[in-house]
Amino acid sequence: MNLFKNAIVIFSCISVNILYSNTKELYKDVSGDSVITKTVSVLYTDFGKDLYCGGYGEDGKVLTELMGETPYSALGFSYKGEDYYISIKKSAFNDSFLDMLIDKDSIEITIEIFPFFPKRAVSAEPFSIVTNMKKLSKD
Fold first, then answer.
1. Which of 8, 96, 116, 129 is deepest in the core (most CB within 10 A)?
2. Could you give the CA distance from residue 57 to residue 108 in angstroms, rounded to a whole number?
3. Partners of 127 in the beta sheet?
4. The domain that contains 8 carries what CATH number?
5. How far is CA 66 from each of CA 18, 41, 60, 100, rounded to the nearest angstrom?
6. What's the structural domain count of the chain?
7. For residues 131 and 37, what is the distance between their CA atoms, to the nearest angstrom?
8. Low-confidence ranges of the chain (pLDDT < 50)
9. 32 DSSP 8-state letter
């Protein structure tokens, strides 16, 4: 009986990850073996420590080599009703810009998506990094 319960839990996790990765709006139609650049308008939620790179483990080393740097900060935002937390490239990081933002401010971000890189261990999303940010005016 315990084996049956474990099998159901494992199958459910696999199903959720497959469903999750295929339905996230930001990553729809993202595939291939080259970096994809997207510019989108999002709602800012927060920023903080990068949970994925930070030079930790083998994935962090590969990403550092791939990008030529190790990001230590990440941007939290909402896009089409879905929440994301994505690494910020050092050249795009600006303390004063992020300090002036409040929850739900509209910003435009440019991100690079690495569909060929193995999925994050902490989520089913491909690795992505914010390369540019700007606040959108309130009209």
1. 129
2. 31
3. 114
4. 2.40.50
5. 26, 26, 10, 31
6. 1
7. 9
8. 1-22
9. S
Residues in the chain: 139
What does the pLDDT read at residue 14? 36
State whether residue 4 is helix, strand or coil.
Answer: helix
User: Can you tell me which residue has the tokens 């080599």?
Assistant: 65
Cα–Cα distance measured from residue 38 to residue 22, given in angstroms and rounded to the nearest whole number: 17
Output the CA torsion sign for 53, 131, 22, 29.
negative
Look up residue 124 and give its two tokens: 């089913």
C-alpha to C-alpha distance for 108 and 42, rounded to whole angstroms: 6
Tell me the two tokens of residue 78: 């909402």
* Domain hosting residue 105, numbered range: 2-135
Report how far residue 126's alpha carbon sits from residue 30's, in angstroms, rounded to the nearest whole number. 9
- 49-80 residue pLDDT tens: 877 665 556 766 777 777 788 788 889 999 99
